[in-house]
């Protein structure tokens, strides 16, 4: 395709502006990109879903872990109410679910949401969940280290393919709060 571009990092053979390949993305992600004013800065890098797990992906495609971020779905409980939220942190860091996330969400208990819940609620594949296209009203907590990256590799909503986005643009997504020390 003539719209191929060179990514800022990694060894990919098939990279395009994400808006040019919306048909490769799950509906919630494609829909969010269509309505996001920063979408023209997002790249889609095709990849083998068998290599989607973070460490394997980084090694296979030559992407530094510190340039990658993982998005996880959190279930925060207070009383009988459960609030779902998403957290985004660099792949070389661990999200502080039990203290930072729990306290920030005002929950008694916080844990990773069950896989079936995360998939059903986001409309995305487990192992590819991305902060772009999350359900309306969800809190999205992003570690400052991600927002400060010039470019960051994140999921595409599917196990096949990844998105490359300027970190500062992620901080403009709906429901975002950028936190110091979300991960360490």
From TrEMBL:
Classification via Pfam families: tRNA_edit (PF04073)
Coiled-coil positions: none
Residues in YbaK/aminoacyl-tRNA synthetase-associated domain copies: 50-172
Domain of life: Bacteria
Secretion signal, residue range per the UniProt entry: none
Protein name per its UniProtKB record: YbaK/EbsC family protein
Species for this entry: Streptomyces orinoci (Streptoverticillium orinoci)
């Amino acid at each position: 395709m003539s719209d191929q571009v060179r990514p800022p990092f990694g060894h990919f053979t098939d990279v395009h502006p994400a808006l040019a390949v919306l048909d490769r993305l799950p509906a919630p992600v494609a829909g969010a990109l269509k309505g996001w004013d920063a979408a023209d800065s997002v790249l889609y890098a095709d990849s083998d879903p068998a290599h989607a797990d973070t460490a394997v992906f980084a090694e296979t495609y030559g992407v530094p872990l510190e340039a990658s971020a993982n998005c996880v779905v959190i279930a925060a409980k207070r009383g009988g109410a459960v609030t779902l939220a998403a957290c985004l942190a660099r792949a070389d860091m661990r999200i502080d679910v039990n203290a930072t996330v729990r306290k920030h969400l005002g929950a008694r208990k916080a844990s990773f949401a069950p896989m079936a819940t995360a998939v059903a609620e986001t409309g995305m594949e487990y192992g590819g969940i991305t902060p772009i296209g999350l359900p309306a009203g969800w809190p999205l907590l992003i570690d400052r280290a991600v927002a400060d990256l010039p470019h960051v590799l994140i999921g595409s909503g599917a196990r096949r393919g990844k998105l490359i986005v300027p970190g500062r643009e992620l901080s403009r997504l709906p429901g975002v709060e950028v936190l110091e020390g979300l991960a360490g």
